[in-house]
Amino acid sequence: MNFNDFYGNWLERQSVCYDSSASVVVMVTDLCPCYYPPNQYSNKRWCCGDMSHFDVSVFAFEKLADVKWGVIGIKYRRVPCDYKPTKRAQIPSGVSPVQNYQSAPWNWDSSKDKRWGVIANSGSSVGSSSSSSSSLTSSVSVSHSENQQQSVGQQSSVINAYYGGFMQGWSDAGSWSISKWGRDSSWGFDGQQAYCVTLGGYGGIQLNAWSGVFSSKRTLEFYARQNNGGTPDINIKLTSPSGACNSLRLQGMAAVDSKSNWSRFQVQLSAFDWRKSGGGDGSAFGGCSESINDWSVNTLLFVNNWGGNQDLCIDQVKIY
Predict the structure, then answer these.
(1) Rounded alpha-carbon distances, angstroms, from residue 157 to 31, 33, 65, 151, 236
(2) CA dihedral in degrees (253, 310, 240, 4; nearest 10)?
(3) Cβ–Cβ under 8 Å, residues 240 and 228
(4) What's the whole-model pTM score?
(5) pLDDT (tens digit, 9 = 90+) per residue, 182-217?
(6) Distance between CA atoms of residues 63 and 58, nearest Å
(7) Domain locations along the chain
(8) N or C, which end of the chain has less CB nearby within 10 Å?
(9) Shortest CA distance to 296 belongs to which of 249, 257, 239, 218?
(10) How far apart are CA 192 and CA 163, in angstroms?
(11) How far apart are CA 242 and CA 295, in angstroms?
């Protein structure tokens, strides 16, 4: 497909894949860090809120498209490690495979190599996003329309809403009575950009996503702090176009852990359900009431509980 990245670049990739119905199986090995001093430009370009994407090994990419394209749009989903696709992607006849030109270091002892090897008999390449010397970027074009949600989008068990910036499909449209801080004063606890605001009286941050974003998830996790390092006096809410879920007060919750005046909170999504009077029971989110089902809930709010101004920073907001 053709698509725009979050930096305004139009990438024409409509007809570059060898076979749009073929698949390659890769192993996800690590997460691209937003803040990485030795490689600041590249990491901030690709890891701080651009399109959801994978860096796949060149040996996986070359089975999908010519490596000259560098970036392509893909659909992806999670499968068992021994999964064999119905139609396996292969390098077309007459196309020369990319060679691995990097030789082993001097005095390398292969008997001490503890890395997982390529699954040779399955034909599936094992991708490693940490092998930067032989990786190409494969951007994922994410669509959140209801009729595509099962096959396209963030299909992993963790959905990141904010991590150094708003992730694909999320926005803060609808926030009220807030003043955002400048970039120099709003760094997160491990270096990336946090979302820091001064909330006016009863003001709120409104994070919007797509329908079904909370469906079957169990936990909301985020880091929060006030300017003085205390726990903000805010309510957390989930809402839908048809109504609001149960509201939870942050100061009534115990932080999982703390770091550099930041507190990490984990909230059971079932606690937002009006029907669960005893609070969250750890079950998968199934909506808020008989009239508000799990598919309609698409908004997360952080609301100031009192009439005066209150400083608030949030960071690494995720659902799983």
Answers:
(1) 14, 19, 27, 14, 22
(2) -110
(3) no
(4) 0.55
(5) 877 787 777 778 999 999 999 999 999 988 899 889
(6) 9
(7) 1-141, 159-319
(8) C
(9) 239
(10) 8
(11) 11
